[in-house]
Write a structure and sequence with these properties.
The chain is mainly alpha-helical. The protein is built from 22 helices and 7 strands. The N and C termini lie far apart (about 75 Å).
């Protein structure tokens, strides 16, 4: 057993309460910012239209089949269910991803504590995950996107493979199958990305090669393929053209070509990890991981090599692919955190043994405790602080619509001023091609508004009937309304102020 510091052992006793505090902190102000354009608001519109149309099979945008967002609808189903329960709010859109993130942290820590018997390693791994911006930030735990649920499903499948290899118990095939099915229904072919590394690891071990002889392997394979084929066949029959969109967008498009200008240098993911998404931990990986791979406990060594195979296999596939987006690497974070958790205590004990007794050793102990304890709270503070930042004008008007929606008597009829052409487009790709603008964030709040509402360009404000109240989100639009209606009164609404203009004749 790796020696541990008394201070760290005390922290382990308090770990459940610390985890609860951090979890609450991660959920505070989850609905603070309006839905982001990429791609959270798109999913929100898909889910809200699904509830309003009662079409639970075909996802739509502007109530037309959505052939840009071609992912299977498991996340959208969860969001639509919460919209039905909680109403059309940011909470309903973001809660599935937030809970998936917290479940991922809990599952990883339970595995390390219960199966490997290393609570200190669990504490370190949990601290790494909670303080990783790429894991808790935008497009993962903080926003209503696919990747947090994908990461959880991949972790379930991967840990189940580890337990199969280590225990030989067939019951863990259920976890493998469940993880594969959930990952497939969450993000389609993305389920396959980490598995080249897993296959290489299994082929290198005799017990891994023996998995092919187990009936559970073939049952899981059959069930997984059956679910995937059933989904794609049903979806294509419900709305022809879906399979062609899948071929263009997922099966070959993203791997063989750079879609939507996402063409980056080959070391793009390492660059993003080292500059924003995985700091400071990325710089500890070369120092700490060797201590996990050379652990004196044979079982821990095998788990560490599996984690390295998973993460490295995913990174290799993503590096070769032409389309590179920073959140694609998210499913690797739990596995790298596992490696840091297994190797960190050994490195700390080795360094501590080299420091003479006295003030130097005491200072080093304090530093180690702070290294474990401080990063999660710093990240929690950063996330709360980021929710106080203003946003672009064309998105900010959504704060006004949301605030008016929550009033006891929402104003009606309401005209929302949006930049000309910045609302009509159904496809984000139109923006790259110089076409009309795209504003999924505003569309969500307009759909959720309980009274008569419409979006108008600034040039149409002067022609509005006097009964219409006008909402603006920028100084330029407000000046235009003031010039058109000098007698109008205004009041600030929304978290980042928008302005509601009422003319004397309005009711």
């Amino acid at each position: 057993m790796t020696p541990t510091l008394p201070e760290v052992r005390q922290l382990v006793r308090w770990a459940p309460w610390l985890a609860l505090l951090i979890a609450v902190g991660m959920l505070i102000d989850l609905n603070g910012l309006v839905l982001s354009q990429w791609d959270e608001a798109r999913l929100g519109v898909n889910a809200l239209e699904m509830v309003q149309s009662r079409n639970w099979l075909v996802t739509t945008y502007a109530f037309q089949p959505d052939l840009w967002n071609t992912k299977p609808p498991l996340m959208i189903w969860l969001q639509a269910g919460l919209i039905s329960l909680l109403g059309p709010t940011g909470w309903a859109v973001r809660l599935p991803a937030a809970l998936a993130m917290l479940t991922t942290i809990t599952l990883l820590c339970l595995f390390i504590t219960r199966f490997l018997g290393r609570p200190v390693s669990a504490l370190v791994a949990g601290s790494v995950l909670v303080s990783t911006l790429g894991f808790v930030g935008e497009h993962h735990g903080k926003t209503g996107d696919y990747d947090a649920l994908l990461t959880l499903a991949q972790l379930v499948a991967g840990l189940s493979v580890v337990l199969l290899l280590e225990t030989g118990r067939s019951r863990w095939w259920v976890g493998v199958g469940a993880g594969l099915v959930v990952a497939t229904l969450t993000k389609g072919v993305a389920v396959l990305l980490p598995w080249p590394g897993v296959i290489m690891y299994c082929l290198a071990r005799r017990r891994g090669r023996n998995l092919l002889r187990m009936p559970g392997f073939w049952l899981v394979l059959l069930a997984w393929v059956s679910v995937a084929v059933a989904w794609y066949v049903l979806r294509e029959q419900a709305s022809p053209g879906y399979w062609a969109a899948i071929n263009a967008n997922e099966l070959g498009g993203r791997f063989g070509s750079a879609l939507e200008n996402h063409q980056e240098v080959w070391y793009y993911y390492l660059q993003r990890l080292g500059t924003t998404k995985f700091i400071p931990w990325i710089y500890l990986v070369p120092l700490v991981v060797p201590f996990a791979l050379r652990h004196p406990n044979a079982q821990v060594r095998r788990v560490a090599w599996f984690a390295l195979s998973w993460a490295a296999g995913l990174l290799l596939v993503l590096t070769v692919a032409k389309t590179k987006i920073e959140w694609y690497i998210a499913p690797a974070y739990p596995w790298v955190a596992l490696l840091l958790g297994l190797g960190g205590p050994r490195l700390a004990a080795r360094l501590l043994a080299r420091i003479p007794a006295g003030s130097g050793r005491l200072s080093f102990r304090v530093l180690l405790v702070l290294l474990v304890l401080a990063p999660p709270f710093i990240m929690m503070w950063r996330q709360l602080r980021s929710n106080r930042r203003d946003t672009l004008d064309y998105i900010r008007v959504g704060y006004g619509v949301r605030a008016l929606q929550n009033e006891a008597d929402p104003p009606s009829p309401l005209a929302v001023v949006a930049e000309a052409g910045f609302y009509e487009s159904r496809q984000p790709l139109d923006v790259y091609n110089g076409g009309p603008g795209y504003n999924a964030s505003l569309r969500f709040y307009v759909l959720a508004y309980p009274r008569a509402i419409r979006v108008v360009p600034p040039t149409a404000v002067a022609a509005l009937p006097s009964s219409w109240q006008v909402l603006t989100g920028s100084a330029a639009d407000s000046a235009l309304v003031r010039a058109a209606f000098p007698e109008a009164r205004c009041r600030a609404v929304g978290r980042f102020p928008c302005w509601l203009w009422t003319r004397p004749a309005a009711k």
